[in-house]
Design brief:
two-stranded antiparallel ribbon, four-stranded antiparallel beta sheet, 2 domains
């Protein structure tokens, strides 16, 4: 009897509070504050999904042969009408992927499927963005609180 060994595709790792605070603070200082100033309103800092819907998406990805999820950084167009509060804000789009061995290593290919006679990507979006919907945890929550020196415009706590 022969045994087939399956290679692990794991690339992430668990991190501690200090790491989370550091990378969020860095993002706020180096990206978020500039995005918000350019747009004239606070950009989103987080995207929230329930465990239930993530499990459902993961199950659907597995049903289509998926073994991973890409999380694309994205932004809603300025004229976005489905949820007007999201117009111009950044978001995350989750896309189911299947790993394939190539001559250059492992590639994570987006999964497409046929739906109603057309080809569709297997993707998930429309999370709860904060801001604008931060759900009672204070204006922006507590994690990664940062004080930004805005020069002549004073200081901002984000």
């Amino acid at each position: 009897m022969s045994t087939i060994e399956k290679k692990s595709l794991k690339v992430g790792k668990y991190v501690n509070t200090e790491h989370v605070d550091t990378v969020i603070r860095t993002y706020k200082k180096e990206r978020w504050v500039h995005n918000s100033e350019r747009m004239g309103k606070p950009d989103s800092l987080s995207a929230w999904y329930s465990v239930e819907e993530l499990e459902e998406f993961l199950d659907k990805a597995k049903q289509h042969g998926g073994d991973g999820i890409k999380m694309y950084f994205a932004a809603y167009p300025e004229n976005y009408t489905a949820t007007p509060e999201y117009a111009g804000l950044q978001t995350l789009v989750l896309v189911a992927t299947k790993s394939k061995e190539t001559e250059n290593g492992i590639a994570n290919k987006d999964i497409y499927f046929t739906k109603d006679g057309s080809t569709e990507i297997l993707a998930y979006n429309a999370s709860k963005l904060c801001p604008p919907f931060c759900g009672g945890s204070g204006e922006f929550g507590k994690i990664g609180i940062t004080i930004v020196d805005k020069g002549h415009d004073g200081l901002a706590v984000i």
